[in-house]
Amino acid sequence: MRKVAIVFILTVLIPSLGLAWLAIRSLRDQQYSLERQEFLLYQSAVDKLAQEAEGYLDQQQQQFATQVEVMLQESRPEILALSFDETIRKAWPMAEIGFAVSLKGKVINPLLTGRPEARQFRLENDRFLCNAESVEVYWNTGRGSVNLSALDQKNSLGGQNSPQFFQAQSQTIVPIVQSGGQSQSQGGQGGYYGTDQVQSGKIPTAKRVVIPQSQTDPSQQAIPMPPLPTDNTYSRVQASEAEFHQLIGEASEGMMARFLQNRLNVMTWYRSPRNSNLVYGAKLDLSKLTDGLKSVVHTLNPELGGNVCVALLDDSARPVSRSHPDFTASWKRPFVAAEIGEALPHWEIAFYQLNPGKLNSAAVTLKFTLALLVSLLLMAIIIGGWLIGRDLHRELRLARQKTDFVSNVSHELKTPLTSIRMFAELLADGRVTDPDKQRGYLHIITAESARLTRLINNVLDFARLERGEKKYQMHQLDVATVTRDSAEALRAHLESHGFKLELSLPETPVYVIGDADALAQIVVNLLSNAEKYSGESHDIRLHLFVAAYPFPHAELQVLDRGRGVPKGCEEKIFEQFYRAHDSLSSGIQGSGLGLTLARQIARAHGGELKYIAREGGGSCFTLHLPLATPSSYQT
Ligand code: ADP
Question: Which of 13, 87, 138, 562 matches a 20 to 30 Å C-alpha distance to 342?
Answer without folding.
Answer: 87
